[in-house]
Amino acid sequence: MIDNRSMPASTVIPVLSYPDVETASQWLCEAFGFEIRLMIGNHRAQLCFADGAVVVTELESGGLTRTGGPFAVMVRVEDVDAHHRRAARHGAAILSRPTSHPYGERQYSCRDLAGHNWTFSQSVADVMPDNWGRIVVENSNDPDMES
């Protein structure tokens, strides 16, 4: 798997939604010991804990996120297009088709048989977050953020 400094190195990343990303991120850091890795405007943050990570996103009106629920799981894979075909073949409800993004990831989202939301992501380029207009939070414990 290619490294991408715009993504946490973890393979499985929970995505949790809150009404206020900044407040939730600060609380998770203070209460649970996470560290902010990356803030993306006021709508998304990447938090790290040892070799793990959590993404905090903005909870939209009606208590839903872009993928239709208050939480999702992101999984980094080697080949997102092959994974998408496999998931569709086995009946996953595809919410968004594989799409390449300026932050160096190719992703698709789906819903499993119980209604859980998943995003599968393939790093296709190593992109520094500040190259696509995001705020990098200095984290002395994250060697991936060095240029």
Features:
147 residues; mainly beta; nine-stranded mixed sheet; 2 helices; globular
What does this structure look like?
The chain is mainly β and 147 residues long. The chain is globular and about 45 Å long. The protein contains two helices and nine strands. It has a nine-stranded mixed beta sheet, covered by helices on one side.
Q: Radius of gyration, rounded?
A: 15 Å
How many DSSP helices? 2
Biggest sheet architecture: 9 strands, mixed
Can you count the beta strands? 9
pLDDT averaged over residues: 85
- The helix/strand class is mainly beta
Stretches with pLDDT under 50, minimum 5 residues: none
What is the straight-line distance between the termini? 19 Å
Order of strands side by side in the largest beta sheet?
6-7-8-5-1-4-3-2-9
- SSE topology string: EHEEEEHEEEE
**Helix share, percent:** 10-25%
| Bulk shape | globular
SS strand fraction: 35-45%
Q: Topology, pairings included?
A:
Elements: E1 12-18, H1 21-32, E2 35-40, E3 44-49, E4 52-58, E5 71-76, H2 80-89, E6 93-100, E7 105-111, E8 117-123, E9 135-136
Parallel strand pairs: 1-4, 5-8
Antiparallel strand pairs: 1-5, 2-3, 2-9, 3-4, 6-7, 7-8
Summarize the structure.
The protein is mainly beta and 147 residues long.
